[in-house]
Amino acid sequence: MSSKTVVKTDAAPAPAHTFSQAVRKGGLLQVSGQGPMDPGSNTYIGEGDVRVQTRRTLENVRAILEAGGSSVEDVLMFRVYLTKREDFPLMNEVYGEFVAEHVPSGALPARTTVFVDLPHEVMLVEIDALAVAE
């Protein structure tokens, strides 16, 4: 049985609570839910702007994927959590640009989008990812 490895990087915000940025076991890498935080200051950015928040959140996920030996190309599944249904088109536009940029094969990952309350009022989006890591 393969051991579990905690993934950490300063290129993404530190976890706010009692969890790891990501965990790798065998060939799988699970990135914890990331939000729109600046990695340098650990402060939320883009208040009220789901486009800015989505891009920052995806960049945080990408930094953790890379720290874990993976990439956006290796993502099997993104889960996107939004606070407002009306933000879906703008989030989807930024998401589409991001995956087009970082998935050159064109084999896009699966995705689920869920509408929820998030832990901090300023957060409009949170995203986690499951990837293959070799």
* Protein structure class: alpha+beta
What is the string of helix and strand elements? EEEEEHEHEE
Number of helices: 2
Q: Which segments are poorly predicted (pLDDT under 50) over 5 or more consecutive residues?
A: none
**Looking across the biggest beta sheet, what order are the strands in?**
1-2-3-8-6-7
Q: How would the global form be characterised? A: globular
Strands, count: 8
**End-to-end C-alpha gap:** 16 Å
Cα-atom radius of gyration: 14 Å
Largest sheet: 6 strands, mixed
The residue-averaged pLDDT reads 96
Indicate the percent of residues in helices.
Answer: 10-25%
Strand content: 25-35%
Index terms:
alpha+beta
Question: What is the topological layout?
Answer:
Elements: E1 4-7, E2 22-25, E3 28-34, E4 37-38, E5 43-44, H1 50-67, E6 75-82, H2 88-102, E7 110-115, E8 125-132
Parallel strand pairs: 6-7
Antiparallel strand pairs: 1-2, 2-3, 3-8, 4-5, 6-8
How would you explain this protein's 3D organization?
The protein has 134 residues and is α+β, with helices and mostly antiparallel strands. 25% of the residues lie in helices and 31% in strands. The strands form two sheets. A six-stranded mixed sheet has the order 1-2-3-8-6-7, covered by helices on one side. Strands 4-5 form a two-stranded antiparallel ribbon. It is globular and about 45 Å long. The model has no long low-confidence stretch (mean pLDDT 96).
